[in-house]
Q: What sequence folds into this?
């Protein structure tokens, strides 16, 4: 499988010192088509800067970012936007039209699609997401506006979907609604890159995690493995998800280590407990 | 990143001046610039206004301010020269009257703008509003409105750049050279800016009310603003400047 996104020795600075927020350096990673990746780290670690480097909003001062063979320094953001869709934390910065239908159509109009195709795609998304097409976006709830912002990105069919803290300010139901949508898109082949502070969400949805601290990548690997690395978690100022934390604490006890040392979800814990109970009953 | 009009901390003589003396100084230079009918005196006033930035130790901001205003000044100068046809022709359609009027307009623009901008850079907004309330007896709600409006300028500038970033990420190309197309692209951005601005203003108003905005009286505030001999000297200098500008 060839890499869809490639960071090759990328550095970027807003003209600030290396210990300040927004500085990233020595970023080397690649993401394949269809992956679901989370970028995590404390505030000021460089996550948002990295996400803006992906779609060319920021151009690297050193190194090279390549999106499906296009180097971001050589192409305008408007061209890269056809491949990379980005959902920001605040939907109100994105929504700029008077009705849901107009908002959904906006991205397609920019791309110069024919009116018939715009109409059919908007109709499809409206029925898929369950929107009221004539409603004003500003009368929707925060979660609904975020969903509309996601839909107006998704309608353009990007190959890579970048989510910059998409669940901030949402309740659990709204959060899951958005995240389940991203999972469906990922299953259909969209590469999803998510920046998120909610480690429970990261564990539930991301297969791979890139951990950043002070503008550099300090770990890159599968979700459960990364969360179990206490040294990495400490350096990144991140707390592991609750179930992994419980598992790690139980594994500190010699008598429980073998049985409880490896679960990372409630289902896995229940399975272990069920086995343990039935073994005890048999004995 | 600090904006051009954000406060720059310091201990220079201008920083230590009474806030109202600084207001008087800035407004005095503006008045002198508009009353002045002598080009040389106007140039001297402009030099004095620029030197205030240097005395205040804000060299980079002063340079940026002057350069920014120069761009507008050049544009205005060309417009004036192009449209004023009265007077004796000097070169092609350019007349002496056009040159003189254009010079006065741009010099007045720069001389009036620089001290007002420097006033904001060298004075904390709280000190400005408190002294307006305590000494000039301006109702606090008006002083608060003025300072809040000034404080929100960089906030809204940042907000606008974030909105533009969001739209750029959607594929909107703001780099177009066609001005009509650019305006058509910018108009929809007013909606999110308006929505977020109204939200922020509402939050700020609510926060102020919760913190006892209406309990505030003229005597509220822990800081006193004494008028010292240095401030009186500045007032005298400004009065002299206005007099010179009128007489010469």
A:
């Amino acid at each position: 499988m060839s890499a869809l996104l490639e960071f090759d020795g990328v550095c970027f600075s807003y003209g600030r010192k290396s210990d300040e927020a927004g500085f990233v350096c020595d970023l080397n990673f690649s993401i394949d088509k269809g992956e679901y990746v989370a970028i995590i780290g404390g505030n000021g670690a460089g996550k948002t800067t990295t996400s803006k480097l992906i779609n060319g909003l920021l151009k690297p001062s050193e190194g090279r970012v390549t999106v499906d063979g296009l180097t971001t320094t050589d192409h305008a953001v408007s061209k890269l936007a056809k491949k990379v869709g980005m959902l920001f934390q605040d939907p109100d910065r994105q929504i700029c039209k008077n009705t849901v239908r107009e908002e959904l159509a906006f991205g397609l109009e920019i791309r110069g699609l024919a009116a018939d195709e715009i109409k059919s795609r908007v109709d499809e998304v409206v029925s898929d997401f369950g929107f009221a097409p004539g409603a004003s976006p500003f009368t929707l709830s925060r979660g609904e506006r975020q969903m509309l912002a996601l839909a107006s990105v998704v309608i353009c069919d990007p190959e890579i979907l970048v989510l910059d803290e998409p669940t901030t300010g949402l309740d659990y139901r709204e959060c899951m609604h958005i995240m389940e949508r991203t999972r469906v898109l990922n299953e259909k082949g969209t590469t999803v890159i998510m920046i998120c502070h909610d480690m429970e969400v990261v564990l539930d949805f991301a297969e791979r995690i890139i951990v950043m601290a002070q503008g550099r990548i300090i770990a890159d690997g599968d979700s459960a493995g990364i969360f179990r690395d206490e040294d990495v978690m400490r350096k990144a100022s991140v707390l592991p998800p609750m179930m992994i934390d419980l598992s790690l604490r139980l594994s500190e006890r010699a008598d429980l280590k073998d049985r409880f040392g490896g679960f990372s979800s409630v289902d896995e814990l229940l399975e272990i407990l069920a086995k343990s109970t039935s073994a005890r009953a048999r004995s | 990143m600090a904006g051009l009009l954000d406060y720059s901390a310091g201990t220079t003589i201008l920083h230590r001046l009474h806030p109202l003396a600084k207001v008087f100084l800035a407004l005095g230079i503006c008045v002198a610039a508009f009353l002045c009918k002598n080009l040389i005196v106007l140039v001297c006033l402009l030099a004095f206004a620029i030197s205030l930035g240097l005395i205040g130790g804000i060299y980079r901001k002063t340079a940026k301010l002057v350069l920014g205003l120069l761009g507008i000044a050049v544009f205005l100068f060309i417009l004036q020269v192009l449209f004023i046809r009265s007077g004796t022709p000097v070169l092609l359609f350019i007349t002496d009257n056009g040159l003189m009027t254009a010079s006065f307009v741009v010099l007045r623009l720069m001389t009036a703008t620089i001290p007002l901008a420097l006033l904001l850079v060298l004075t904390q907004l709280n000190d400005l509003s408190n002294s307006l309330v305590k000494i000039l007896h301006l109702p606090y709600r008006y002083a608060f409105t003025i300072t809040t409006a000034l404080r929100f300028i960089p906030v809204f500038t940042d907000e606008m750049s974030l909105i533009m970033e969001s739209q750029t990420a959607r594929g909107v190309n703001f780099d177009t050279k066609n001005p009509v197309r650019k305006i058509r692209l910018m108009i929809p951005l007013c909606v999110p800016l308006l929505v977020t601005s109204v939200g922020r203003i509402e939050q700020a108003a609510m926060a102020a009310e919760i913190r006892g905005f209406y309990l505030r009286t003229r005597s509220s505030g822990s800081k006193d603003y004494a008028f010292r001999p240095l401030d009186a000297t500045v007032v005298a200098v400004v009065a002299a400047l206005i007099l010179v500008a009128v007489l010469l």
